């Protein structure tokens, strides 16, 4: 159980950091929010992978396709976050 939690944090940090590098513009996210972005992106990427290819993670947790899916999911979540966040921002 502890190994799964540490794995989620590490994959979340990697996917979130890569997503922040790939999406242009400034994102005001702390390191814990970057990890959360990556974890949520992993779930989004896993759901999209299952919806498109009808396969799940039968071969283990760490797979190259799973990492790529996590980054793609994190990019999608970050794009949505930045678009929704700008609408709520107070403009002077």
UniProtKB/TrEMBL annotation:
- Major location, coarse class? membrane
UniProt membrane topology term:
Multi-pass membrane protein
Organism superkingdom: Bacteria
Q: Name one GO cellular component term.
A: plasma membrane
* Record field: transmembrane: 29-53, 65-84
KW Transmembrane helix (keyword) present = yes
Q: Which UniProt keywords apply?
A: Cell membrane, Membrane, Transmembrane, Transmembrane helix
Kindly list the places in or outside the cell where this protein is found, as annotated in its UniProt entry.
Cell membrane
Q: Which family does it belong to?
A: Belongs to the UPF0410 family.
In Swiss-Prot or TrEMBL terms, this protein is called Uncharacterized membrane protein YeaQ/YmgE, transglycosylase-associated protein family
